Amino acid sequence: MQLRKLANGRFVMDLSELFLSIKSKVNNQADLNLNAKVFKIRRFDLSRYLVVFIMLGLQSQSPFADEMVTEVQSSLSGSDHDESQKEPKEGASSGALIAHDSASLANEISAIITAKQHPYLKRSNFQNRAEDLDALYKLAGYKLLWLGDFQADKNRADVLKLFEDAAFNGLDSADYDVQTLQNRLPAESIITSNDYKQLALYDTAISLTLLRFVHDLHYGRVNPKAINFNLKLREKKIIDLPTLINSSVNQGNFAQLPNLVEPKLKQYQKLKQALNTLVLASKNSVPHNFVFTKPIKPGEAFSKSQELETFLVSLGDLPKEGVGSSKEANQYTRKLAFGIKKFQSRHGIEPDGVLGKSTVAQLNAPLNDRVTEIELAMERLRWLPEMNTGATIVVNIPAFQLWAYDDINDFEANIPNMRVVVGKALKNETPVLMAEMRFIDFMPYWNVPYNIVKKEILPKLIQNPGYLSSENMELVSTFGNDSKAVAFSAGTISGLNQGTLRVRQRPGKKNALGKVKFIFPNKSDVYLHDTPSRSLFSRSRRDFSHGCVRVQNPDQLAEFVLKNQLSKEEIEEALQTQKTRRVVLKKSIPVLFFYTTSFINQHGNLVFYPDIYGYDAVLKEELKKSVDLSDQELIAPPPAPVIALDPFGTTTNPEVDNASERQP
């Protein structure tokens, strides 16, 4: 045997002569057949040689190498009962050792799970993943999953590759101890170790990390309540992660594992595609810096056209054949301007095709920043419970837009889409929430919130007792369409201050809610509504409200919501009359007020929006904590049993009946 020098300067043993020698001995002994038992060669000895061969990454030049591998694999799959019952001698593979004393290994694995601490990993405490880890090893009979045979070696390599490529799934590989798991796998630990604790520690480290990986993909890494995202909890677990992992182990297929656990929402899937494009672009892009002294229009000279073309092609804003002939190499062509228009649209800039100040600023923004924005968007989408098919209304707060989907997974250019005005940043921010739209009020009253009465109306009313009348407002003791107005008196100011009197605005041209109000009961008491202040919709930044969301086309939204109840003519009539009318929906419609600075619109384009509330920065800080989420905080508890009473006051619940005596 000889030492062979590798490209990295290290020396390794050339085992081709070893395999050739074994082959030669076999051929020279006519009394031996191909059975490892007859060869007097132990199955685990053959396994050891092959594992060494694979772990050192050698590519033997021996013509017998491939045949030798086949013989060893055949031997390993054979039934050598006599040899398997013998004591494995020193140097045998870990697979042989484990088969010999599986009880000791099971004890070590159980001890690690019971301790809920893992010394190999940065997040050593795994209290919230211990139940799943135990379930996984219970399915496997508390045996090693990632060490001991050829399939385990392949599975381990595939899983480590998943962790290494976590960025393509919108995750951070640093959260999954990739380097540690790779460094703690010396070849000799697999072949010669009889330390069951060491084997159990390494195997459970991979299993625990994989559980964390799939849990993060399915549920997200942050509890949305921690950053005031008031989203609905999941009703139940729909995926059994330990069973799914065990199935992947048995099938030797981990490439599809992320697809099985991540959200199925089309928005998520399209963002993931865009992320992969940007991740590759950021890795392969050449640093650039576009500097202009004045705006450049199509047809004008431009020395960096080739550089701009390459960049736009990498982003998908321009096809590879976009620029054209070399004669236009130093010109800002119309074809380049076409790519810039798409780029501008995706970054909230008026798509005029001109290379101006705002456009250049976005062109020079680091691609990694955009990658991060998509990662944050994907993280937020993981928090959503499973969305049912059917009508859904989505407001993306930083986009200042509303989409009304017949099916949230159908991306069509003709779906209702309109501008909205949202709550003022740093003052009256529109909350993130999920609720069910249940009814609509045409020609509504505006029930003025107490904080607005106290901060804005009372000071004006004190200075001008006629203020309420001038604004078409009135006093009431309680809110409600049928409530009667209360006359102004000496105690009015005190009553308003204490909250025993309330203010509402009557229907009409001055009404802050306009002609229609879309109501979905929620703790924040916000809703969608029309507005008389139409000019605000023409502005690019539209955060002006007290928290509710004003819609640009309320008649169009009413037609979407009531399309199975009222005709277009009936809706127009309701919008013109001065009488308040409530229409209860036959079927409630889910409403989602969401916040994401990257979004795939109905045309399938990736668009970026300004972080008006600073929520991206908040989420980045929360992600740095890198904690295991508790399933109890993510899954809604089962509803409490309904306890009915019979006419005599006793329960009809047998458990309760048996726990207490009946009263006479």
Topology:
Elements: E1 2-5, E2 11-14, H1 16-28, H2 43-55, H3 65-77, H4 81-84, H5 94-100, H6 102-115, H7 130-139, H8 150-164, H9 178-183, H10 187-191, H11 196-219, E3 229-230, H12 241-251, H13 257-261, H14 266-284, H15 305-315, H16 334-346, H17 357-363, H18 367-382, E4 392-396, E5 401-405, E6 417-423, E7 432-442, E8 446-447, H19 450-463, H20 467-470, E9 473-476, H21 492-498, E10 502-505, E11 516-519, E12 528-529, E13 543-545, E14 549-551, H22 554-561, H23 568-576, E15 581-594, E16 598-600, E17 606-608, H24 615-623, H25 631-634, H26 654-659
Parallel strand pairs: 3-7, 4-15, 6-13, 12-14
Antiparallel strand pairs: 1-2, 4-5, 5-6, 6-14, 7-11, 7-15, 8-10, 9-10, 11-12, 16-17
Helix pairs in contact: 2-3, 6-7, 6-11, 7-11, 7-12, 14-18, 15-16
Task: Summarize this structure as a short list of keywords or feature phrases.
664 residues; alpha+beta; Muramoyl-pentapeptide Carboxypeptidase, domain 1; L,D-transpeptidase catalytic domain-like; eight-stranded mixed barrel; three-stranded antiparallel β-sheet; disordered N terminus; disordered C terminus
General description of the model:
- The chain has 26 helices and 17 strands.
- The strands form four sheets. The protein has an eight-stranded mixed beta barrel with strand order 4-5-6-14-12-11-7-15.
- The longest helix has 24 residues, at 196-219.
- By secondary structure, the chain is of the alpha+beta class.
- Among the domains are: 2-86, no CATH class; 289-363, PGBD-like superfamily/PGBD (Muramoyl-pentapeptide Carboxypeptidase, domain 1, Orthogonal Bundle), CATH 1.10.101.10; 388-623, L,D-transpeptidase catalytic domain-like (Beta Barrel), CATH 2.40.440.
- It is 40% helix and 12% strand.
- Helix 15 crosses helix 16 (334-346).
